């Protein structure tokens, strides 16, 4: 069973991370809060236009409270501020709203960017690699979608389903760890599976699911079990047919 992320600190303690003086903008100056630093940087990026939205000290304090509470609720890491400020230079010619700034902090929340990452990640896992995942929610959204649809449907066809899956996954706020993939059954460029490698995959599936895919059952699929156990020489096509016959593609999808 995958472990969940540890319980988050209280909202009050997280708010203090954003509101209490802890950083220096310039050497020798008094410490400032992350929110003060962010305000200063945005004022520099959008001279006149940013400060125009906050004409009084009261308006600035209201902005600090609203955005810092949003950062806590959305679990923004203070280290993401640097990315958000840098991306604002490229993404927005106007002062961003809260949602726009969060999008700049987390470009992977753009559904199409996350979709491209998911496709590349699932393809890597099919090769026995972990894949590169900027956020676990993208991985679990991909698994929930189903690998076949994700890899074979065009973006225009799958867009709405993917966006719904991604929104649903991010809303959970806690995610199981991304598991390591099962070893690839056949290495790229090879036509005959290595016997030990094939048996290793089958043992891992048995360990994860409890299903012994090689046990004789008299169901007419013993030929497939012999192929995957390395007892019968087979081409890549035959190996793929054997895997489909035993439902290993579905098991692999669950274990991926």
In short:
The chain has 256 residues and is mostly helical. It contains 14 helices and no strands.
Tertiary shape = elongated
Mean pLDDT: 79
Largest sheet: none
> How far apart lie the N and C ends?
14 Å
The total of beta strands comes to 0
How many separate helices?
14
Which assembly state applies to the chains in this document?
single chain
Helix and strand pattern:
HHHHHHHHHHHHHH
Low-confidence runs of at least 5 consecutive residues = 1-7, 188-193, 249-256
Structural class: mainly alpha
What does this protein structure show overall?
With 256 residues, the chain is an all-alpha fold. The chain is built from 14 helices and no strands. The chain has helices at 11-19, 34-45, 49-52, 57-73, 80-91, 98-105, 111-126, 136-145, 147-152, 155-170, 195-209, 222-228, 236-245, 248-255. The chain starts with 10 loop residues before the first helix and ends with a helix. Mean pLDDT is 79; it is low at 1-7, 188-193 and 249-256.
């Amino acid at each position: 069973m995958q472990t969940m992320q540890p319980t988050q600190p209280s909202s009050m303690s997280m708010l203090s991370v954003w509101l209490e003086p802890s950083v220096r903008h310039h050497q020798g100056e008094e410490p400032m809060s992350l929110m003060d630093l962010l305000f200063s940087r945005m004022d520099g990026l959008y001279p006149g236009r940013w400060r125009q939205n906050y004409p009084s000290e009261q308006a600035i304090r209201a902005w600090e409270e609203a955005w810092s509470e949003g950062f806590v609720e959305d679990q923004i890491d203070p280290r993401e501020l640097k990315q958000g400020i840098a991306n604002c230079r490229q993404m927005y010619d106007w002062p961003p709203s809260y949602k726009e700034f969060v999008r700049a902090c987390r470009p992977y929340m753009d559904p199409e960017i996350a979709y491209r990452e998911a496709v590349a990640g699932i393809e890597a896992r099919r090769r026995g690699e972990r894949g590169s995942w900027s956020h676990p929610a993208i991985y679990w959204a991909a698994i929930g979608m189903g690998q076949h649809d994700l890899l074979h449907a065009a973006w225009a066809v799958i867009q709405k389903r993917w966006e719904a899956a991604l929104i649903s996954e991010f809303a959970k706020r806690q995610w199981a760890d991304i598991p390591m993939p099962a070893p690839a059954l056949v290495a790229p460029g090879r036509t005959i599976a290595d016997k030990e490698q094939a048996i290793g995959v089958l043992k891992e599936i048995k360990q994860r699911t409890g299903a012994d895919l090689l046990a004789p059952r008299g169901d007419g699929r013993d030929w497939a079990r012999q192929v995957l156990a390395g007892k019968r020489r087979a081409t890549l096509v035959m190996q793929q047919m054997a895997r489909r016959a035993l439902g290993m593609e579905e098991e692999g999808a669950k274990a991926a």
